[in-house]
Amino acid sequence: MTFRKEKDYIGEKDIDNDKYWGIHTQRALENFDISPYKINKNFIKAFGMVKLACALTINDLKIWEQTKANAIIKACEQLVNGELDDQIVVDPMQGGAGTSLNLNVNEVIANTALEILGEEKGSYNIIDPIEDVNLFQSTNDVYPTALKIASIFMLRDLEEEVIKLQDALQEKEKEFADVVKVARTQLMDAILITLGKEFSAYAEAISRDRWRIYKCEERLRVVNIGGTAIGTGLTAPRKFIFNVIEKLRDITGIGLARAENLVECTQNTDVFSEVSGILKAHATNLIKISNDLRLMNSGPKAGLAEIELPQVQTGSSIMPGKINPVIPEVVGQVGIKVLGNDVIINQCVAGGQFELNHNLPLIAFSFLESLDMLINANKTFRERCIINIKANNKNLTKTVNSSYALLTSLVPSIGYKKASEIAKELKNNGHNIKDHIVGNNILSEEEFNKLTSSDCILALGHKKPVQKDLKKE
Fold it and tell me: Considering 139, 187, 193, 370, which has the largest number of Cβ atoms within 10 A of its Cβ?
């Protein structure tokens, strides 16, 4: 192993010559040995896009010699393409409002560009991580801009998975449209409903999440690139400030806008609190649906056993034949984690002071973690649970015919008083309600079946929710 010597304001350090990072990254590795986590790859890609936009803008301003500019631009492109991910090594948990990550990126781009030129790593007299790669920039405008770009890309991925989950739930709504079951309020028998109608409620809740997530992107499009340290644009020429956003739009394909008030956009991070609230709302729906499915699947002998969730793995090291609802369980836990991250994000946003929020690294980590987990949870929920759910028709019919919930459906025909008398009469003898009513000629079997059919118990019918093409609205 060979080393090169690098120095900064504090002193000198030996850097492994195989590494593309430099002294600032090495100090960050020593100072912030905090977590087992890595920087999110979407964040690294977005950082590369911001650095590429800056390099292209500087090139247009004819500040660098062309060979040098080409090398820096190519190095930025490699970062965007994921070729240098393994060199972005700083801990997401770091002090300095993200300076360590920015310097890690700067050093990796600089040393990659030097290699492209055929120069030795650390030859900063030719290409300097700060003087060149970070020219006209600050961590305080690059970091939040990259974070917003990464968030938008991930929100789009999440929206696609939410759409697919909604579609899967609507397919179940159609499949179970005529499956009658007992509805429950406060966990007690209520009236009759269809399993399809219950799934329609899940689909509608996820549809709201889809709309909310789609609208989130516009909240994140306003960025502070060009504002440098505190939003005043100090050290950056006006041509750079006004042109770099155009380059960034072209590179990302996102309709980004430079903030009208760069100081405000640098100082405040409440947009992440707002969007995290939307993610929290989606998480609560996932938790609710997961819990319902677990209850309906409970048993199979001593529980409700109304549906059968797909069996994806054995459930016990001691109890033979036990299969647990592990997919709804993990989805519910993801939801709880997102709720926790929302608390963290709100605390971090509120804790900013004066012209900068020093908590940005924790905001970034928690926010991107929530997006990552929700993307994966929606996909897993759909693929490994929802699409293969089956109705336990035999048990559902048995429960319906023995539940007082059935009597409510008969009230229009036999009256509330008569229905109450039947409930009281059957309270302690455990007889089947249908057998009692048909056997005592209170109603014919045909009349009974009609009154308890899916068409009769759903006064509003089975109208399918209208699909909206959000992209056209």
Answer: 370
